[in-house]
Automatic annotation (TrEMBL):
UniProt entry keywords in alphabetical sequence: Cell inner membrane, Cell membrane, Electron transport, Flavoprotein, FMN, Membrane, Phosphoprotein, Translocase, Transmembrane, Transmembrane helix, Transport
Subcellular location: Cell inner membrane
NCBIfam families linked: PRK00816.1, rnfD
Name of encoding gene: rnfD
Organism for this UniProt entry: Kineobactrum sediminis
Listed transmembrane segments: 71-89, 95-113, 125-143, 199-219, 226-244, 256-273, 285-302
InterPro entries registered for this protein in UniProt: NqrB/RnfD (IPR004338), RnfD_bac (IPR011303)
Listed EC numbers: 7.-.-.-
Cofactor(s), by name: FMN
Protein name: Ion-translocating oxidoreductase complex subunit D
Oligomer status and interactors: The complex is composed of six subunits: RnfA, RnfB, RnfC, RnfD, RnfE and RnfG.
Length: 341
C-alpha cells in the first residue's frame, strides 16, 4: 500500500503555522462584529476571557511536557481554539463555563494527544461538546437579538461573565430550537413570530453571511481548499430540500433556513477546514464535508441537539482516517491496487 506523504506546517514563510492562524483570526472579525451588533458584547467577552485561559493552559501543558514556551506560544493555535470556542458559546456565559470548555479543548483534546498536529479531533468542538453534555441549561441560554429586546452593554456583559449570580439574564429559544420543538403550527404561522426575521432568524442570517464572507476571504488567500465547505453546504441544502414538505408542522425547515441559521457557515469555513482533524485527499475532503452536512441535518431534524454542527464534526473526525485510507490518490507508476503496473 502506498502511503500518503503529508508534510507538517512550514516553520517559516507566508505559509507558516503562525501566518495561517493569524489569517483565520482576521477572518472571524466580520462574524464577531455581527454577533456583537445583534447580541451585544457577550461573545467578545467570551473570546477575550477564553483567550486568556487558553494561553495559561497552553503554557501549563508545554511546561509539563518540557517544551519551549516561546516557540509554541507564537503559533497562535491556542488563540484560534479559544476564539472559535468563544464564538460558539452563548453570549453572557459564566466565566467558569468558558474556563472548563477551554481547558477541555487545550489540555484534553490537544495536548493529551501530543499537541498541535497530532489531535484527531477538533479541539474547539471537543470543548463545546463537553460543555453541552455537562451543562445543557447554560449552553442553551441565548440572549434575544437586537430588535426583540435591548442589547446588553459592555458592563452588563462583564457582569454576566464574572458575576453571574448578580446578573438577571433574559434568554429565549433560537429559531432552530423552535422549529425542532414545533409539533402543532405550520411554518408560515411559526414565521409570524418576529424572531424568525426574513430567512432564518433575526441576527442569525446576518451572522452566517458575515462568517461566509470571512470564509470566502480565507479561500481567496488559499488557507484551505473549497472541497469540504462546498460539500458540506451542498449536502445540507440537498437533505433539507429532500425532506422539506412545504411547511407542515412536521417540517424541518427549508434549505435556506438551514444554510443561514445556527452555526452553519461558521462550521463550514472555520471548523471542518481544520487541516489536522479532517480528511486530506481531494476526494476525501468532499466525502468528509458531505458526511458532516448530512449528519447536521439528521441531528437537527430528528436528534436532541438542534444545531448539531459540533457532534457532526466529531463523528466525521473519527471517520477521517477511514476516509483517507480509501481515497488515497494513485501514485505515479502504481496501479490502483498499490502494486506496479
Amino acid at each position: 500500500m502506498t502511503l500518503i506523504r503529508i508534510s507538517s506546517p512550514h516553520a517559516h514563510g507566508s505559509d507558516s503555522t503562525a501566518s495561517v492562524m493569524r489569517r483565520v483570526l482576521i477572518a472571524t472579525v466580520p462574524g464577531v462584529i455581527a454577533l456583537t451588533w445583534f447580541f451585544g458584547f457577550g461573545s467578545l467577552v467570551n473570546i477575550i476571557w477564553a483567550s486568556l485561559v487558553a494561553v495559561a493552559c497552553e503554557a501549563l501543558a508545554l511546561t509539563l511536557r518540557r517544551k519551549p514556551l516561546g516557540f509554541y506560544l507564537q503559533d497562535y493555535s491556542a488563540l484560534v481554539t479559544a476564539t472559535l470556542l468563544g464564538i460558539a458559546l452563548p453570549p453572557y456565559a459564566p466565566w467558569w463555563l468558558i474556563a472548563i470548555g477551554v481547558a477541555s479543548a487545550i489540555l484534553m483534546a490537544k495536548h493529551l494527544y501530543g499537541g498541535l498536529g497530532y489531535n484527531p479531533f477538533n479541539p474547539a468542538m471537543v470543548g463545546y461538546v463537553v460543555l453541552l453534555i455537562s451543562f445543557p441549561v447554560q449552553m442553551t441560554a441565548w440572549a434575544p437579538p437586537r430588535g426583540l429586546g435591548e442589547v446588553p452593554g459592555l458592563l452588563q456583559a462583564l457582569q454576566a461573565c464574572f458575576l453571574p449570580a448578580q446578573y438577571d439574564a433574559v434568554t429565549m429559544a433560537t429559531p432552530l430550537d423552535m422549529v425542532r420543538q414545533n409539533n402543532s403550527l405550520l411554518l408560515e404561522d411559526l414565521w409570524r413570530d418576529p424572531l424568525f426575521g426574513r430567512w432564518a432568524g433575526i441576527g442569525w442570517e446576518w451572522v452566517n453571511l458575515a462568517f461566509l464572507a470571512g470564509g470566502l476571504w480565507l479561500l481567496y488567500r488559499r488557507v484551505f481548499s473549497w472541497h469540504a465547505p462546498v460539500a458540506m453546504l451542498a449536502s445540507l441544502g440537498l437533505m433539507a430540500a429532500l425532506f422539506y414538505d412545504g411547511g407542515s408542522s412536521a417540517s424541518g425547515g427549508s434549505p435556506l433556513f438551514h444554510l443561514l441559521s445556527g452555526a452553519t457557515m461558521f462550521g463550514a469555513f472555520f471548523i471542518i477546514t481544520d487541516p489536522v482533524s479532517s480528511a486530506v485527499s481531494v476526494r476525501g475532503r468532499l466525502i468528509f464535508g458531505a458526511l458532516i452536512g448530512t449528519l447536521v441535518y439528521l441531528i437537527r431534524a430528528w436528534g436532541n441537539y438542534p444545531d448539531a454542527v459540533a457532534f457532526a464534526v466529531l463523528v466525521a473526525n473519527f471517520s477521517a482516517p477511514f476516509i483517507d485510507h480509501y481515497t488515497q490518490p494513485r501514485s505515479y507508476g502504481h496501479s490502483k491496487s498499490g502494486g506496479q503496473p
